[in-house]
Design goal:
Elements: H1 5-36, E1 43-49, E2 98-99, H2 113-124, E3 132-138, H3 150-162, E4 167-170, H4 179-190, E5 194-198, E6 221-227, E7 245-249, E8 253-257, E9 261-265, H5 268-281, H6 283-286, H7 294-299
Parallel strand pairs: 1-3, 1-4, 2-3, 4-5, 5-6, 6-7
Antiparallel strand pairs: 8-9
Helix pairs in contact: 2-5, 3-4
The structure holds calcium ion (2 copies).
Amino acid sequence: MKLTLRKLNKHILHKKFKSFCIFFLFVFLLSQLAASQPSLPPLLIAVIDTGIDIEHPHLQNVIWSNNGEIGLDTNGTSRALNGIDDDKNGFVDDVHGWNFANANSDISDGDGHGTHIAGIIKNTTLNSPRPIKILPIKYYENIQNPGNNKNSFLDAIKYAIEMKADIINISGGGLNYSRDEFSILSEATQKGIIVVAAAGNKFEDNEYFAFYPAAYQLPGILSVVAADESGLTLSTSNINIERRNILVLGKKIYSSLPHKKFGFKTGSSQATAVLSGKIASHFETIKKINLAHLDELILNSNF
Ligand SMILES: [Ca+2]
Ligand SMILES: [Ca+2]
């Protein structure tokens, strides 16, 4: 077929238009396919700590909300403020979490530790394929003077289980073994909850302390030791000698602090939060394995 120049141009234009239509159709079909994929619900990460400044700009959109305690009740009153346990979970107005140190819904952070931990988890999950929510559970008021917080710690774990946390971050602990603690953490891990716990900063006089709950021998509990930027264990970091420990960067970690502030903190607490965030980011892979092999998988991975 002999084409004139005008016909040739028209022919080329027609072909281009056809290609464009096919490309557009292809993009449209891909977007429809993506839209038809069920989106995964956010992962819930319980932060059992000193509370969290949930008003901090850095933490917007990641703090958990209790659907049963928001909106209006049948009287037209705000469920968040009506003084009624609307979702009947045993806690009145627990809109964003619970304070077990003072038995109320005030989860504000007078210390700064919990807000720093929450900010690290947010930072570490920025590229996570699955969104996350942080569940603030306050179990002590002042990190310098923890007092008798054993019961509030146990209740905090129970609450995390009841609220169906996927991961529990425990950037704290102590030197005493507790049968009750072991029992409730055993229940958590049997339900598939991953417990990421700090190995502590109690290394003294060349003696390694067992630091609980990281030291409990339970599949699903991870013991996190803080490292510096070269991957070397921090001189202050404790190592739970009877179990596998996971070395994670915990030196000068930048994160949020109460009252819109930011700052650096160092220790196994920070390293624990980094690992919680990384586990959340790889959760779809991790949840397929037996928790008994979890520390092995993490030790052999690059994340
Ligand atoms: Ca409630
Ligand atoms: Ca209420």
